Amino acid sequence: MALDPQLLDILACPDTHHAPLRYDEDGQTLTCTECGRVFPVRDGIPVLLLDEATGGPASESATAGDH
Length: 67
Hints:
Blueprint: H1 5-10, E1 21-24, E2 29-32, E3 38-42, E4 45-46, H2 57-64
Antiparallel strand pairs: 1-2, 2-3, 3-4
Organism: Rugosimonospora africana
Protein name: UPF0434 protein Raf01_01890
InterPro entries: Trm112-like (IPR005651)
């Protein structure tokens, strides 16, 4: 299910920088153009919760401690 282009124009990352999001229709995800967090789109609804996101700064710092 494709997201409305007008909706995509106003959506932004919920983190403090509020950067634009890039939509991956095949993967049903939205990716922040600044921090790299990937937010799921479920049943055509963007889930813009930081706790639901994958990737981004939190995962980088977690994996950096594994070395």
